[in-house]
């Protein structure tokens, strides 16, 4: 960014949606209690997080809440002994949750499995014993290359229960990417499945694992455990390969839970940076479980009767925090769906909500925009009346998608919790609560115990309405412990760009009410003739047009203006009835953006596409579009998935 770091905010959203009185009355946290929590956090944020820690079970309490003597390498709850799996399973077996449903799973072909907390506890114990029998011990790394199956949940929990470290690799990555991550993690064991169902076809996972293990990592991997799922031909290499079912069949359903130090690593999760080289983000037991438990309970106002469905894949941080660990620690019932959201047709999500009586749906803007293309016919055909809260995660949600979700899925009665957080933060950082007034497209304000701000390059707060860098000014419990084997990269990437603050890498602005608006990544900012415009704002302006379903905007070099904007657009049906040619539509869209954002936002060119390159978590990869446009090497494309 420029010397001031300021980025003019061009989009202005005036609409405010206030919670229904009944929602405020029934909320677990009323406005007065929220105000008290915020005052406590502002006065003494360590006492606030200590109170949150008391909601969980510990083998031994902490010596202090936070050790910041080696900042930015913070240590939360040093001296404590714990294990997140004890809080996710073991403690529930002694309560009324024992026979409550923990997991409702549905496969793409329509098969179903359900587990109570007691049943899940026993299955985790069996696999924990199997892992121990295979020589896996505390501190060992286990790679999970899995689709969304109950065994994925079981494997994650079993690895953590015995004190080992899991690294989940998304089940669509290539053998090359899998090999790189196994090598980097120095994994001792791999858990996979023979295959899984995706969009009406079977993906052969075991074949990809075999190819990966032919490489340099064959020496570090001693065992490969394979789950029967799709009954595809799987070549088993003895003695390395073992069937999961054969292993657990002979194991006892009881197993001791390893006592862990507070900052012992829980999992390693690779995050793709803009530079292309993935970072091995490490999260630890104690702080992580405190952060996700408090934030899930408060943001989604969990009730004993809730059926919670987060549509994320377990290969990403949302799947770790709010598909597996968060809901189980909180003692709620969670839904998991294996397949494609459009299979066999575009009503699958709404069908799952209706059949299981889902009360909370947490999903991505990309998925919502994709389903918007099919109009309201499918949600109208399903009974979505059980829904009481909606959530958004992964990228900024444009106001039009927000309003569509609120009106057609939530029946204009379900508040939308638009959450901002990252792989590195581990937990929700900025989000409304069900009692908050909402502005479509804004992530609201920082949660209690989190101090977020928008600053310039020197760390000075910018005025309301001006853009700058999003930073977090104080440590928080669920923050990453570091980057695996690379403390220097951890410091340089997150803590030295604006000294003394966590640099999130996002550009944002605060409005006059203190609401935060995410405008895009810091490297996704256009500089057109000295004017700085967030790509997310131009994209939001495009999507506001009734014939635009999705849009991605990049900057390309220009000899006169330095940089000009190019847009890639996916259209909705029906535009031909209004425009004679595609050139007429291009002209109309350019004028539309100019009207929405002012004369500064000039689109030099616009290209229509049927798909956009996205990560498997749904984020548009603009660097791919830019590399293609400039004729450069697109680099590692293994993180791409075309949801269409």
UniProtKB/TrEMBL annotation:
<dbReference type="InterPro" id="IPR020845">
    <property type="entry name" value="AMP-binding_CS"/>
</dbReference>
<dbReference type="InterPro" id="IPR000873">
    <property type="entry name" value="AMP-dep_synth/lig_dom"/>
</dbReference>
<dbReference type="Pfam" id="PF13193">
    <property type="entry name" value="AMP-binding_C"/>
</dbReference>
<dbReference type="GO" id="GO:0005524">
    <property type="term" value="F:ATP binding"/>
</dbReference>
<dbReference type="InterPro" id="IPR042099">
    <property type="entry name" value="ANL_N_sf"/>
</dbReference>
<dbReference type="GO" id="GO:0005829">
    <property type="term" value="C:cytosol"/>
</dbReference>
<dbReference type="GO" id="GO:0016208">
    <property type="term" value="F:AMP binding"/>
</dbReference>
<dbReference type="Pfam" id="PF16177">
    <property type="entry name" value="ACAS_N"/>
</dbReference>
<keyword id="KW-0067">ATP-binding</keyword>
<dbReference type="InterPro" id="IPR011904">
    <property type="entry name" value="Ac_CoA_lig"/>
</dbReference>
<keyword id="KW-0436">Ligase</keyword>
<feature type="domain" description="AMP-binding enzyme C-terminal">
    <location>
        <begin position="537"/>
        <end position="619"/>
    </location>
</feature>
<keyword id="KW-0547">Nucleotide-binding</keyword>
<feature type="domain" description="AMP-dependent synthetase/ligase">
    <location>
        <begin position="96"/>
        <end position="482"/>
    </location>
</feature>
<dbReference type="GO" id="GO:0003987">
    <property type="term" value="F:acetate-CoA ligase activity"/>
</dbReference>
<dbReference type="InterPro" id="IPR025110">
    <property type="entry name" value="AMP-bd_C"/>
</dbReference>
<dbReference type="InterPro" id="IPR045851">
    <property type="entry name" value="AMP-bd_C_sf"/>
</dbReference>
<keyword id="KW-0007">Acetylation</keyword>
<dbReference type="Pfam" id="PF00501">
    <property type="entry name" value="AMP-binding"/>
</dbReference>
<protein>
    <recommendedName>
        <fullName>Acetate--CoA ligase</fullName>
        <ecNumber>6.2.1.1</ecNumber>
    </recommendedName>
</protein>
<comment type="similarity">
    <text>Belongs to the ATP-dependent AMP-binding enzyme family.</text>
</comment>
<feature type="domain" description="Acetyl-coenzyme A synthetase N-terminal">
    <location>
        <begin position="36"/>
        <end position="88"/>
    </location>
</feature>
<dbReference type="InterPro" id="IPR032387">
    <property type="entry name" value="ACAS_N"/>
</dbReference>
<dbReference type="GO" id="GO:0019427">
    <property type="term" value="P:acetyl-CoA biosynthetic process from acetate"/>
</dbReference>
């Amino acid at each position: 960014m420029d010397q001031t770091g300021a980025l003019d905010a061009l989009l202005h959203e005036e609409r405010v949606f206030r919670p229904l009185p009944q929602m405020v009355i029934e909320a677990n946290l009323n406005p007065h209690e929220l105000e008290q929590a915020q005052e406590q956090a502002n006065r003494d944020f360590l006492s606030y997080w200590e109170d949150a820690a008391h909601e969980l079970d510990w083998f031994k309490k902490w010596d202090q809440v936070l050790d910041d003597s080696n900042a930015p390498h913070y240590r939360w709850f040093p001296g404590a002994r714990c294990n997140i799996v004890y809080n996710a399973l073991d403690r529930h077996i002694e309560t009324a949750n024992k026979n409550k449903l923990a997991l409702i799973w549905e496969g793409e072909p329509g098969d179903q499995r359900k587990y109570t907390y007691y049943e899940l506890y026993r299955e985790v114990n069996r696999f924990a014993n199997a892992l121990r029998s295979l020589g896996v011990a505390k501190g060992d790394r286990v790679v999970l290359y899995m689709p969304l199956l109950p065994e994925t949940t079981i494997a994650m929990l079993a690895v953590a229960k015995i004190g080992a470290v899991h690294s989940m690799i998304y089940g669509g990555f290539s053998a090359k990417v899998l090999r790189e991550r196994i090598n980097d993690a120095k994994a001792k064991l791999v858990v996979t499945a023979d295959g899984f169902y995706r969009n009406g076809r079977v993906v052969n996972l075991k074949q990809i694992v075999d190819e990966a293990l032919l490489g340099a990592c064959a020496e570090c991997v001693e065992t490969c455990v394979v789950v029967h799922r799709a009954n595809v031909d799987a070549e088993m290499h003895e003695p390395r390969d073992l069937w999961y079912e054969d292993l657990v069949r002979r194991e006892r359903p009881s197993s001791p839970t390893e006592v862990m130090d507070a900052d012992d690593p829980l999992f390693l999760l690779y995050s793709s940076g803009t530079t292309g080289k993935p970072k091995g983000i490490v999260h630890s037991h104690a702080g992580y479980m405190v952060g996700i438990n408090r934030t899930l309970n408060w943001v989604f106002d969990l009730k004993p009767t809730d059926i919670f469905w987060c549509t994320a894949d377990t290969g990403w941080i949302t799947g770790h925090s709010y598909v597996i660990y968060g809901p189980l620690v909180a003692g709620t019932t969670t839904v998991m769906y294996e397949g494609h959201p459009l299979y066999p047709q575009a009503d699958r999500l709404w069908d799952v909500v209706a059949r299981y009586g889902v009360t909370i749906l947490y999903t991505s803007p990309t998925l919502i925009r994709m389903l918007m293309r099919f109009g309201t016919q499918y949600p109208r055909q399903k009974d979505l009346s059980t829904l009481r809260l909606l959530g958004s995660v992964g990228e900024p949600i444009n106001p039009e998608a927000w309003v569509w979700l609120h009106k057609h899925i939530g029946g204009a009665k379900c508040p939308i919790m638009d959450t901002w957080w990252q792989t590195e933060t581990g937990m929700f950082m900025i989000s409304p609560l069900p009692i908050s007034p909402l502005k479509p497209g804004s992530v609201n304000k920082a949660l209690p115990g989190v101090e977020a701000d928008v600053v310039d390059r020197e760390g000075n707060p910018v005025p309301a309405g001006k853009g700058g860098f999003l930073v977090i000014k104080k440590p928080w419990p669920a923050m990453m412990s570091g980057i695996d084997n690379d403390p220097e990269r951890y410091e340089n990437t997150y803590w030295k760009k604006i000294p003394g603050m966590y640099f999130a890498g996002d550009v944002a602005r605060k409005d006059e009410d203190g609401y935060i608006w995410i405008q895009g990544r810091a490297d996704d900012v256009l500089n057109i003739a000295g004017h700085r415009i967030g790509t997310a704002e131009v994209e939001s302006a495009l999507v506001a047009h009734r014939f635009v379903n999705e849009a991605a905007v990049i900057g390309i070099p220009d000899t006169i203006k330095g940089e000009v904007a190019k847009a890639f657009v996916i259209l909705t049906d029906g535009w031909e009835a209004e425009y004679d040619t595609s050139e007429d539509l291009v002209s109309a869209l350019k004028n539309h953006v100019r009207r929405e954002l002012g004369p500064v936002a000039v689109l030099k060119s616009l290209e229509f596409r049927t798909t956009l390159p996205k990560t498997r978590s749904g984020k548009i990869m603009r660097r791919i579009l830019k590399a293609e446009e400039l004729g450069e090497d697109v680099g590692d494309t293994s993180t791409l998935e075309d949801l269409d």
